[in-house]
Amino acid sequence: MDRIGVKSATTMLVLLDQWSMEENLLSNPDPFKLRIYNLATYQITKNLADRYLGFGDRKITINTGYGSLWYDRYIKSTLNILTVVKTGGINPLFEFLNPQIFDGDPNTGLYQPHHMDDAETHLVTVGRVIMLDNNWHRVFAPLALTAQGVRRQELVMEGIDKLMDKNGDVTPADIVKVFENLQIFGQKVSDWWLSQPDFVNKLNTWNKGREFIRNGDIEGFLHFMFDYQKGGKTVNPFMDRFFMFAKKTIGSFLTLENFKEFSYLFTQKDMEFIKKYFFI
Quick one: pLDDT band at residue 63, thresholds 50, 70, 90? Predict the structure, then answer.
């Protein structure tokens, strides 16, 4: 049972449900067969939840104040993938995230998942984290210390969610309408976006990336936005470092969503996003 994979576990649960219906365990249960069904279901779901979703390991690390799941390769990979996919590969000010900050080499820069609320650094809840580079993280960090700053970040991310959900291409008028007069760092959020160098081409690229996501082609999106050339070959840090781990965690969540409660890892919006766009 310790080595069971996501696909095998899913198949086992389907077979158990079929068996329970054949044996009529819900309306006229045989106590012995019902016990077998419940025990098998419990062991399978517990294995997946503990192994890939950190269900049984949610301690706070005293030295750092971060939760132990922050250092779990399955959970951290899932956090990295989802925070990037949910925004279409941008930071809150409409700058594309440089793929090289995810390659593990400090010489090419570092990525920094940023907690919108400093009081939540012990959590790994995807929807409460923004993906930034190290430089922007230092700028955003003070916002996490006040209720006003936290709310301002939340409103920006809610706006990005609305734009990501739009059918068809996002236009400059959509950006102005969604963010209205919302300001951050002394400037309208829409002005941050619209004043980006080469804005038209960036917007076109972002819309193409959004289309991959809307079609459920997450791998295609990651290749489109984060492939780059290194040493004469194409590399992609998301596919090389994170995707296979995240795939197991997301696949486990999709299998177990009716068995366990995962609010420590995903907000309700996160769960809806995964079920809508991830076909794993």
Answer: low
